[in-house]
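Case study 2.
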Amino acid sequence: MLTDSSIKTSIRGLSAVGKQIIWAAGSNGQVAKSTDGGLHWQWLTVNEYTTRDFRAVKAFSEKEAIIMAVGEPALLLKTKDGGLHWHTIFFNDQKGMFLDALFFTNQANGWAIGDPVAANHPFIANTDNGGKTWPIQTNNLPVFKQGEAFFASSNSNLFVWEKKKTIWMVTGGTVAKLYINSQLAFPLPLLQGTASQGANSIDCYQRTCIIVGGDFMHDTIANGNAAIVTTQPSLKIKIPVQAPYGYRSCVKHIQNKIWVCCGTSGVDISYDDGLHWQPISKASFYTICVTESKKIFLAGNKGRIAQLFL
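Prediction:
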C-alpha cells in the first residue's frame, strides 16, 4: 500500500510507537503523523523551519515527539501537542556541525551523534531526562580517519543496547567501521574509500546485528553492501552468502529471523538472519520502521510512504 503525497519532501526519518502511531520527518520543514496504523496521514509544517531538513524523528506518543535537523546549526525540536508547536531542546552553531542520528532506549534516555567537528572526533551527546538537557561527551572519543564520517541517510547508523549498556555506531567514507562504546573499533567488509561508500545502517536483535550500506553513487552494485555481526560467544563479523541487490540505506529486524532492508535501487528481505537476501521490490526508499504489531512502513523521496505486506 503506497501513500502518494503532493508534499514536496524527502523522508529519511520514521518512528513508530505502539500499534497505531507513526511519525515521519522530512525536508522543507515537513512532518507527518498517522494515528490509525498508517491508513491516514496528517501533514504538518514546522513553522520558521521550512528550509530545514529533518532526518530523524523519535515518537513517544500521539502528542509527543522529537525531530532532528541536519546541517548548521544543529537542532533538536520537541512537540508536546501533536506537532502544532515545537520548542528547541538542543542548539549548536559550531562550524561544521552535522547531526546524523537520534536514538532513544526509553522516554528518558537518548543519544545524538554527528560528524567530526574537531580533531576528527565524532560529536556525541546524550540525555537522561527526555531531551531537557544534552551534555556533550568529551572523553574517550574515537579518532576518525580523515574522510571518515556517519551517513544521515535513514537515522539508523546508531544502535544502543539498553540491557548491555553499549552504544554501537557504524561509519563510512574513507573507511567503514563498527564502533562499540567509542573505544572498540572493528573494520567492516563493506565498500569503502570514497565519500559515497561505507556503512549506512545497523539494527540488532538478540545475538545478531545486521549492517547495510554500499555505494549510493552506484546503487546497483550488489556486493560489499552488508555484514552480519554475531555477539555470542564472541563478536564475529561475516558477509552474507547472498547479498542485498544494491546499495541499502536502512535495515530493520521484523520478527524471528526475518529482516528487511531498503535503498534507492530496491527492497530486499532475509528469512535467515541476513545470510541470504532476495529482492521484493525495485521501488526506491530511504528508511523503515516497524510498529508493535509488526506493520512495516517505508518512506522516501517526494513524500512517499508505503506499507509492506509480507
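The chain is about 0% helix and 50% strand.
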